[in-house]
Prior knowledge:
Blueprint: H1 5-15, H2 19-44, H3 56-79, H4 84-105, H5 115-125, H6 132-153, H7 162-212, E1 217-221, E2 227-230, H8 232-237, H9 249-252, H10 254-265, E3 274-275, E4 282-289, E5 298-304, H11 305-346, H12 353-381, E6 388-391, H13 392-407, E7 414-419, E8 424-427, H14 429-446, E9 456-461
Helix pairs in contact: 1-7, 2-3, 2-4, 3-4, 4-5, 4-6, 5-6, 5-7, 6-7, 11-12, 13-14
Amino acid sequence: MKLTSDLLQQLKAGSGADPAGGTLRLYLGYRVALALALLVSFAAAVGPGMLGQHAPGLYAIASQGYLALTLLALALAYVRRRDHDALCYSAIFIDILAILVLMHASGGVQSGLGTLLAVSIALASLSMVGRTALLFAALATLGVLTEQLYAQITLSFSDTAYTHAGLLGATYFALALLAHALSRRIRASERLASQRGFDLANLAELNDYVIQHMQTGVVVVDEQDLIRLMNEAAWYQLGMPEATQGTPLMYIAPALAQQLSAWRIDRNTDRPAFRAVSGGRDLRASFTPLGEGGAHGTLTFLEDTALITERAQQLKLASLGQLTASIAHEIRNPLGAISHAAQLLRESPDLAPTDQRLAEIIHANGQRVNQVIENILKLSRRDRGRPKPLVLLPWLQEQLGELGRSYGLAPARVRLEVDPAGTTVYVDPAQLRQILTTLFDNAVRHFQGPPDALRLRISAGI
């Protein structure tokens, strides 16, 4: 059960936002407001007196057309969102033409309407990529100078204002450069924020994966004991309840909720193990406050006491294996001396036959003890067995003969049955010999009757 999937989806959706598109729509909205204000001010005669004073008819047609085009561009921005650059370029080009016509109809550069182009260039530059803003600043400057030249040729106005037009063009370039620099910084910030959003989403997804695959149960509740997160281990430990984000903890795990309430009253007392459901496993809970004094909720870890006991047992077994290996190494030193002495004794020419037999027994049992030590060392090193096909009957006859001689058992007292006679097993011979040795040793050592009454029967069959 993953209660963090909604958060991940929100983070990924937020990282894919389009801030540049929002800037463009803001610019297009400003154009609509500007066109509407210019038309209403002229029609209602409430604006400055210079609006349309030179050519009222031209001003009325231009302002109406400008308003219609701005409304169309704003509608296209919401319908065709991918045509970002085309909408921006066409909008600023229309602004330059429309405002130049309105400026000429209102008396030229001295009307002050040319200043509106500066605002349009600055806003459009925030939505443009590269140095395209400088191109439109140059077009606006050439347009203003061309309008002044046309007015002088046609004697439309009594006075010309080339200086004013030049300053206005310089203003266009300055605003375009500033807006271009600001736009680059904004885009860099947007890329960084987008990358941080992706990184945060990936980190949250990684954390969610780690939490969900932890063997330790994890439950996070808010200050009102409503579940905010629960991993799969906790879900199984609590009896697989029908829990969703916002479910009260008391509803799905009353025993855990009671322990949490007791912990908030006294945080220094160890909590006893509890069972979330009848017949479930014994659990032990540990709590950690989130935020100062638990103001943002509580993090709960659930440990299965059976797993804790099993881990402790594994540690004990590992320590015992190390101790056994150490003892085995210490035994091999005197065992080597015993075997060497028995070998020298067997090679003595003056040794009586009975003593020769005793020396052979010492040597054989020394080999057996050495084999047991080797098996113990293999077990402590946890070496894997090396099984191989083994014909059981002849191998058992050989091994039982050696073991019978070692323990002083007559062949008649050891009975071997293998049916069918050609039975083949897949086993590690060393491990199987250790099993036989242990069986023989236990039989001889713990048999309570007379020694001649001991009988051993080995039976193997399919």
